[in-house]
Amino acid sequence: MTTSRQPVVRDAVLAALEGALRAPSEHNTQPWRWTLLPDRLELAVDPHRRLPFTDERGEGVLLACGAALHHLRVGLAARGWTPVVRLDREGPPQRRVAEVAWEPADAVPDDARRQAAAIDRRRTDRRRFAAETIDPGVLDELALVARTFGAALHVVGGHARRALVDAMRDAALLQLDRPGYTAELQRWTHRYAGGADGIPHSARLAEPHLYDDLVLRWFPGGGLHQPPGGADHADVSTLIVLTVDGDDTASVVRAGEAMSAVLLEATAHGLAATPITQVLEVDETRDRVQALTGGHPVVVLRVGRPVPEAPEPPRTPRRDLVSVLVDRSAEPDEQDAR
């Protein structure tokens, strides 16, 4: 990297990091830490933001870091830089999980433009969706972007869907009996004013999450109302299970990248989506989902068309860049010194 390019690169990297802040995470915990070095970024899990009673396996924080990593990829590519990513295969969850360098690109890929434009528009929407099925060609496109990151999408219908929603209902009941779970849910749905994390009142439904056979995780005390239409607009959302081949650190981080790519691509197609992990947080129900798909399941996605009359869901808060970034770009690089 030449000296003349350093300010240009820094501006692009910081702008891409701002976009990465919008990545989804369970309960909006935002469990990522970035370190900016002279020629690369390092990404690590913030262990203090893990949900120990909800995310006992520790996969949720890796999934979120993978989503933030993909948002960064998209932001860099949209600004004319090719990200060069190296994932750490194993290690304790508090260590670095990835590093990202960059090279000047000859052109901006079309998918990077499209997905970068979707970052600010993407929302987790827990409301009822419209009575309109998704074009199979769009589902094929979502599966294609998932495969780019080594993941597979399984569209679940018929008997498999009934088995999945039964597992989701059982997980919701079993998790209520887990010590610490309810208190943890309360903590992340009733944050301090100005905390810039957690699930705010405006993003939690005021009514139970019941859509025919489908029950979503209940977040108490919400102020978000269902769109107009009532029973005349039955929810016909598509359920998709995203799986990977392994459960090592790198595989789950890449799964987070795949989830991000699918969510941004869905947003670009005008779809709404709800990431669902509760059914995978209980050993018994996760095993049942794995039996349905064959791969290692990391997230279920509820995808559909938003109700036309529905207002856009409000943005959930995010911490600012200063809170998640350690800037060491002006310091000597220890790796180069060696």
Automatic annotation (TrEMBL):
UniProt xrefs under Gene3D superfamilies: NADH Oxidase (3.40.109.10)
Q: Where is the composition biased (Basic and acidic residues)?
A: 328-338
Q: Where is the Nitroreductase domain?
A: 119-304
Which parts of the sequence are annotated with region: Disordered?
A: 306-338
For this protein, the record's PANTHER family field holds: NAD(P)H NITROREDUCTASE RV3131-RELATED, NADPH NITROREDUCTASE
Q: Which NCBIfam families match?
A: Rv3131_FMN_oxido
Task: Provide the protein name.
Answer: NAD(P)H nitroreductase
